[in-house]
Predict the structure of Tetratricopeptide repeat protein.
Amino acid sequence: MPEFSDPTGRTPETHVIDFRAAEQLLAARDPRGAVKLLDGVIAAHPENTAARLLRARAFFAAAQLRPAELEFSIVLEREPDNAYAHFALARTYERQARPEQALRHFRLAAALDPNPQYVEAARFDA
């Protein structure tokens, strides 16, 4: 077994390959396949925020909103200035019919990044 492998025999290199493959699966509209690949990456590297953000996006795309909410929240605990994660969490809350929580995160996203999509969603003029 390689020196840096996890209990499944996967190496850091295979985790990178799995991460890249998960990106491709998500782009190809196979979010469940992406989640399956990312589960192993995150099990071996729970601190990997990029993998968690990608898995959150995949959960959202698969309409698995509670797991998406959890993953976006973990990303924001680690990176509170991640405007995209705030925006995506807001969209998750919006799909769960939780408008107050959604608006809070839309506004945080817009405050962190003046992306026109974020600013429009923040409804500062309302």
Observations:
- The chain is about 70% helix and 0% strand.
- The chain has two domains: 1-63, 80-126.
- Helices lie at 12-27, 31-44, 49-61, 65-78, 83-95, 99-112, 116-122.
